[in-house]
Amino acid sequence: MYVKSLKLTNFRNYRSLSLELNATINIFVGNNAQGKTNLLESIFLLAMGKSFRAVKEKELILAQQEICIVSGIIQKQATMSLQVSLSTSSQKKILVNKKETSPSDFIGNLNVVLFTPDDLQLIKGSPSERRRFLDSEISQVNPTYRKLYSRYQKILFQRNQALKNFNHKRKNDRDTTDLLAVWDEQLVDVGSKIILKRSEMVYKLNLLARLIHRKITGNLEELSLVYVPFFINDFSEAQEFNKNNWNLDGVKAIFYEKLKSEREAELIRGYSLVGPQRDDLIFLINGVNARRFGSQGQQRTAVLACRLAELEYMKSETGSFPVVLLDDVMSELDIHRRSFLIEVLSNKFQTVITTTDVNDIDSELLRKGTLFEIEAGQVRIK
User: Fold this and answer.
1) Average pLDDT across the chain, whole number
2) pLDDT in tens, 315-327
3) Interior CA angle at 302 toward 297 and 307, to 5°?
4) What stretches of 192-316 adopt beta strand conformation (E)?
5) Which has the closest alpha carbon to 2: 23, 28, 27?
6) Residue ranges of the chain that CATH labels 1.20.1050.90
7) pTM score > 0.85 for this model?
8) Cβ pair 263, 188 in contact under 8 A
9) pLDDT band at residue 362 using 50, 70 and 90 as cut-offs
10) Cβ 115 vs Cβ 307: under 8 Å
11) What pLDDT, in 10s, does the model give residues 56-108?
12) CATH 3.40.50.300 occupies which residues in the chain?
C-alpha cells in the first residue's frame, strides 16, 4: 500500500499542489512554518477523514477561500482514488473512486501510522489520548469496530441526555427510569463488544511491542502494554484481565454490576460514569508504570516500540503495511534509536519524512528516496 500522488487545493498554505510520491522514501526538507506538517496532515486526512491536529475542520481551508479539496491516488491490490472536500458553508464530503461514502466506509482504504514529537503524550498524557490511540488503530483495520464505536457514541449521548433530564424533585421519575433501562441494555451490549475488541488488539500489540523493545534496549528492559477496562481498579487486576480469555457474557455481567452500583451517582452528576469511555492503557517497563517512574528516554523508547509494533499489527490484520508518516522526529531521537528506526523503515514501507535539517537524515535513506524542498507552500524536487 502506498500513495502514488497527492493533489491539494486551498488546503492550509497550499493554494494548488500536485505531487508524485516515491513508493518507498519521501523526504521533505524546509524551515519551520513552510508547510511540511501540512503535507503529512493531508495524507492523514485521506486515511482517517479528519485532521490529527485541527480543532475545527474549517481551519484546514486556506484563508479567504470557501472550499478546500484533498485527493490522492492510492495503490493497493488495485488503484483507487480518495478525496475529502471541506467547505465553509456546507458539510464535509468524502469520496472513494469519485463516489460519496460514509466516514466508516472511508476509513481503512488507506492505513497510516504517524510519528510526531508529541508522541510522548501517549504515555504522559491523559487516558483520553490513549483511548484515541486504541480507537484509531483498530478502526483502520476493522470495519466492525468502526461501526460499533460510532453506535456506542450515539447510545452514550442519548443515555447522558436521559441522565441530565432526570427530575430530582419527583420521587419516582418513571419516564427516565424506563428510558435508562433501554439505554443501559444497548450500552452494555455494544460497550462490552468494544472492550473485547480493545483487549484483543492490545494483546497482539503487546507481543509485537515487547519484542521490538527488547531489540532496541538490548534485552535490558521489558515493555508491557496493559489494557485497563473501566471496571478494573489496579494493575494486578488489569494484568489478570489481560491474561484471561474473557467472554462477552462475563464482561456484560460486570458492566451491569457497575451500572447498578453507580446509578445514584450518575443521576446526581447527570452523565455516564461507567463504560469504555473511561478505559485506559498502561505502559510498564520492567513492571513499573512508565508514566509515573520512567525517564524521558525510557518513555521515548517505549513509544517508538509501540509505534513500530503498529506497523506489524496492521500488516497482520490487513495483509498490507501502512504508510509511515514521520513529522520531524529524527532530531528527537538519539543515534541508537534513530539507527534502529532507519533499519526498520529502509525496506518495507512507503515513508514520508519531514525535517528542518537534511543532515538529520541517514545517507542510505537519501540515496533510496526522493528529496523535496518546501518553501512557503511551494514544493520542488531537490
Assistant:
1) 91
2) 999 999 999 999 9
3) 125
4) 223-228, 280-285, 288-289
5) 23
6) 118-319
7) yes
8) no
9) confident
10) yes
11) 899 999 999 999 999 999 998 899 999 999 999 999 999 999 999 998 899 99
12) 1-111+323-382
- Exposed/middle/buried for residue 50 (C-beta within 10 Å: 0-12, 13-18, 19+): middle
**Listed residue (97, 94, 65) closest to 80, CA to CA:** 97
Q: What is the CATH number of domain 118-319?
A: 1.20.1050.90
Amino acid in the structure at residue 248:
L
Starting at the edge strand that comes first in sequence, how are the strands of the sheet with 378-381 ordered? 112-115, 323-327, 351-355, 25-29, 370-375, 378-381
Supply 346's cell numbers: 529502509
Partners of 85 in beta bridges:
69, 93
pLDDT digits (tens, 9 = 90+) for 3-29: 999 999 999 999 999 999 999 999 999
Q: Look up cell 508524485; give the residue.
A: 20
| In contact, 12 and 35? CB cutoff 8 Å | yes
As assigned by CATH, the class of the 1-111+323-382 domain is: alpha beta
Reported as a single tens digit per residue, the pLDDT across 118-129 is: 999 999 999 999
CB 350 within 8 A of CB 324: yes
User: 226 forms bridges with which residues in the sheet?
Assistant: 282
CA of 104: how far to CAs of 15, 50, 96, 192, 253, in Å? 29, 12, 12, 20, 29
> What is the pLDDT confidence band of residue 232, given thresholds at 50, 70 and 90?
confident
Distance (Å) of CA 312 to CA 18, 203, 205, 320, 338: 31, 13, 9, 9, 19
Q: What letter would DSSP give residue 61?
A: B
DSSP run (H or E) holding 240: helix 235-243
Question: Which residues, 6 or more positions from 116, have their beta carbon under 8 angstroms from its beta carbon?
Answer: 52, 327, 328, 329
CB 329 within 8 A of CB 302: no
The one-letter code for the residue type at 87 is S
What one-character DSSP code corresponds to residue 349?
Answer: S
* β strands within 173-307, DSSP E: 223-228, 280-285, 288-289
Residue 67 near residue 10, CB atoms below 8 Å: yes
Grid cell 521489558 — which residue? Answer: 222
Q: Are 229 and 276 in contact (CB under 8 A)?
A: yes
